[in-house]
Amino acid sequence: MQKKKGSIRKRLILVVLAPILILGITITSFGVFLIYGFMSNSIHDELSATTNMMVDCMNLTVRGDYAYEDGMLLKGDVNITDSTMLYRIKEEADIDTTIFWGDTRILTTIQSESGVSAVGTQADSVVVEHVIQEGENYFSRDLVINEQPFIGYYTPLQNRNNEVVGMIFAGKNKKLMYRSMGIMVLWFILFSAIAVITAVFISRGYSNRMVSDIGLINQYLRSISEGDLTADIDESIVNRTDEIGEIGIYASKMRSDLQMLIEMDPLTSLYNRRSCNKKLCNLVKNENPFTVVMCDIDWFKKINDRYGHDAGDYVLVKLSELIRQNVDSCGFASRWGGEEFLLIYTIQFEQTMQKVIELQKNIREYDFAYDGKSIKVTMTFGVKEQEKGVPYERSIKGADYKLYTGKRNGRDQIVS
Questions:
Q1: Cβ distance 386 to 289 under 8 Å?
Q2: 142-154, pLDDT tens digit by residue?
Q3: Which domain, by its residues, includes 251?
Q4: How far apart are alpha carbons 73 and 75 in whole angstroms?
């Protein structure tokens, strides 16, 4: 009896292909599970960092308790009903964000597929129970908002008495996540089809790198959440060309923006008192010579009383621009408090005096025109050269004393 040809070949092919197919399916299934877990964890951390950043920004920028009156969200006496930050996060990180008052959305970037905003809609009862009633953070992979599937993270919005008055939400559309997952899964399938062994080694190396990079991102975000704004993200993260690289870039931008919010005065964009002290400590530590100039706007209260506080803020902003133009090339400046500024010049004392005289002249001649009215502004300056080995706080007190000497002697003068 003649044997059928090709039976051994078929069996060999079956023996070879069966493990390949099993391994390929296993590798693909494992890859899907792994990628989903990695992306879920990274999205969780990204969304958590986003909500914490938003809460910190609002708490650090304006003091006071939250209130909602006449359709406006207030922080103390300041109206913070502004969607700019929400849409900036949406544009840069592709993250939808929402501010709740109670369980109601009052500011949001979420829209339905037909373009209808989710403003005015209420949060799910499970979210309200966890966040509003119990004051806990809440994360879910199965949210439906405005008929859109989301992965989202909620953080309670609290007043100083720990009363939860609202929530901050950050979320990503699940369709975008699945699209990214689909691309990665396709690569796993292609690698498996080419060669199982090669695919195993490639996927192992790729997975190890992904785990390592996600760990670095987690560590970086954890450092930021703990208040270390000097942390730098690993170069290997930002050099990636995939979604993890994008997360790293946006996390770095978030850190830079948060650092600016913390270190800079929000009105004048000059350094605040805290960051100025930090820079002065570095100058003393490095034994760099410098001169302290304390200056104050003359009769600023009269400007506020006569022209209004908006005009006063306008004067502060324009005056800060003149100060920055004068100081930036040879030092730095900070808003020390109210209408008082601290200028640090890292040049010779004689040159500093020339710069201060030039600044005084520029302020006198500048036309502070507000609402059709020209406001006359002058400043009094106290100048004190830092002595080697002397605490810089003493130089600040010396400059402050000279400033008030100038105030007592008629203002609009430089006392050194």
A1: yes
A2: 899 888 899 999 9
A3: 8-34+178-263
A4: 7
